[in-house]
Amino acid sequence: MDNITREIKVLKEEKGAIILAHYYAPEDVQKLADFVGDSFYLAKVAKNTDAKVVVFCGVSFMGESAKILNPEKTVLMPDINADCAMAHMADVKKIKKMREEYDDLAVVCYINSTAELKCHSDVCVTSSNAIKIVRSLKNKNIYFIPDNNLGRFVANRVPEKNVILNDGCCPIHVGISKEALLKEKEKHPSALVLSHPECTEDVLSLSDYIGSTAEIIDYAKESDKKEFIICTECGVKYELEKDNPEKKFYFLSSCATCRDMKLNTPEKILHVLKTGENEITVDKEVAKSALVCLDRMLEMGK
Ligand code: 13P
Ligand code: SF4
Q1: Pairing status of strand 192-195 against strand 141-145
Q2: How far apart (Å, rounded) are the C-alpha atoms in residues 278 and 123?
């Protein structure tokens, strides 16, 4: 065990802290985290933990959601600048306009969104529960924010709903091109293509399986196949290779990298544990109304 890991371990015990990391966090951060997972799993851990302090190695909407779900806890982020570009790609004015246009509208908000957007929404979803939740809503008209690719994927799987799309997207996943994927498929003709629903429709149409990061990891583990082309952020490589040493995972030549997720480092984890800096705060009124749609997701996504 190196010195930083040792110091983190001691401080964690002293402060009653746990470390959560998303699969897109750097490998050395995933290695020292207590819980590693996709957005839905991490939200559930954040809601149910008894720890006094949660160090969230992800991006700001994750730290914010953890604080909203568990307001008594101290939530720290190793790097306060780690943000998700897509989380800001919807507009409260537009939501209000849509509500005027449709009587029967449910605003479904991908968890990758600011707390303010959640306040104006009816229910949150993640990529692993979006289909289930949209399907079980009574409303016919669904305004899906902010991600238009996940929204379209859900619309295709739940054709009985009228899903109205917003024009946000994840700049990292839309950077995975159909052309690059076709080239990779040519190199590895027997590999299955596993993709995240934040990818473009073109990429999804060439995929054998579409799911959240955790679902991609589970699928690869369960599959009898030995080779996979992975269309999501390259942080999942660590877990995929750790769990499946006999299988091969190919990432497109320009491995999709979320710069914000990579701002999390062991040094910064140590620093916030020592100093208590980068504590997440959310305005009480905002938190109260954002909690309604996060709690609804945890209930409906069970
Ligand atoms: P999941 O962890 O739900 O697959 O989401 C991917 C993502 O973009 C998180 O930022
Ligand atoms: Fe946001 Fe995309 Fe980074 Fe996920 S990968 S945190 S959606 S920018």
Answers
A1: unpaired
A2: 28
Q: How far is the CA of 174 from the centre of ligand 2 (A)?
A: 10
Which residue, judged by its Cα, is nearest atom 3 of ligand 2?
Answer: 258
Q: Which one has a higher pLDDT value, 21 or 43?
A: 21
Is residue 123 within 8 A of residue 158, CB to CB? The reply is no
Q: Is the CB of 233 under 6 A from ligand 2?
A: yes
Q: Which helix (H) or strand (E) holds 53?
A: strand 53-57
For residue 211, which phi and psi values (nearest 5 degrees)? -165, 175
Q: Is 87 helix (H, G, I), strand (E, B) or coil?
A: helix
Q: Which residue among 84, 88, 176 is best mutated to probe the pocket of ligand 2, counting the most ligand atoms within 8 A of its Cβ? A: 84
The protein residue with its alpha carbon nearest to ligand 2, atom 2, reads 170
| pLDDT score recorded for residue 255 | 81
Q: Minimum-distance ligand to the CA of 147?
A: 2
CA 253 to chain CA centroid, nearest Å = 23
Which residue minimizes the CA distance to atom 3 of ligand 1?
39
Nearest-angstrom CA–CA distance, 165 and 149: 9
Confidence of residue 152 (pLDDT cuts 50, 70, 90): very high
Rounded CA separation 127/213 (Å): 8
Residue nearest to atom 8 of ligand 2 (CA): 84
Residue 87 has pLDDT above 80, yes or no: yes
Residue 194 DSSP symbol: E
